Amino acid sequence: MIKVNNKVFLALDFETTGLKPEYGDRIIEIAAIPMYDKKIYFKYAFHTLVNPMIFIPGEVSRFHKINNEDISKAPPLIEVYPKFKEYIDDSIIVSHNVKMDLRFLDIAAKESGMFSIDNYYIDTLEVSKYYLERGPYNLEYLSRKFHLGIDNFHRAWDDALATAKLFQKFIHIFSFESLTSFIRKWGD
Prior knowledge:
The chain has eight helices and seven strands, in the order ββββαααβαβααααβ. With 188 residues, it is an alpha/beta fold. Strands 1, 2, 3, 4, 5, 6 and 7 form a seven-stranded mixed β-sheet that branches. The two termini are 13 Å apart.
């Protein structure tokens, strides 16, 4: 098991052109907010739009409010991924439905000609399903249930912040030590 003392936990979220990276959907927005010693450090956050080099379907744009014009001047993922991988370093990733996010990162790595990440991660969705009697388990519902102060959703920054605050809340309610049993390694 990984030693978690002195580790940065990185709340991560993406917006994408759809839900299936293996069928061509790609990342269009990345947000990552670091937490150290159970505190959020906004000044070290990572946030960018990404040009996926493909068309964003209208029904997807209506969901997250990012359209093709918004990303037209954004850097392509082949430029963003190397910087983002370096930024992630050996952080423990915290995400709500983490496996979906990490599948998108695997495709981004492949298209960038690089190795994918192999970080440890914790999934706040998995934690929610384990500890909470009933759902729904989506970020919007949980943010309101636990009064996290997040009013906007379905943008990478807002959802990464909601994930960070939810993780902090879970530490407070369930203890940091109990949450460490949910830590897994990507690629194992």
